[in-house]
Specification:
Blueprint (H helix, E strand, L loop, with lengths): L2 H5 L3 H24 L6 H22 L1
Helix pairs in contact: 2-3
Length: about 60
């Protein structure tokens, strides 16, 4: 997900996506600890997407 795409979304949508990704990251960490995670590299992409969303949210709130 690109930052330019995220800037087009409303703050409510970004908040919802932030909650979804936080929950997904939590579940992935549990799966990793139990050795059930099939794609460990996906954690990296989820963390980066979450950081992008948080950055865009912060920018929108500062305006």
């Amino acid at each position: 997900m690109k930052a330019a795409e995220l800037r087009d979304l409303a703050a409510e949508e970004l908040g919802g996506r932030e909650r979804e990704l936080t929950d997904q990251l939590f579940r992935m960490r549990i799966q990793k600890s139990m050795g059930q995670l099939e794609a460990p590299e996906k954690i990296k992409t989820v963390r980066r997407d979450l950081a992008r969303i948080k950055t865009v949210l912060r920018q929108k709130r500062a305006k």
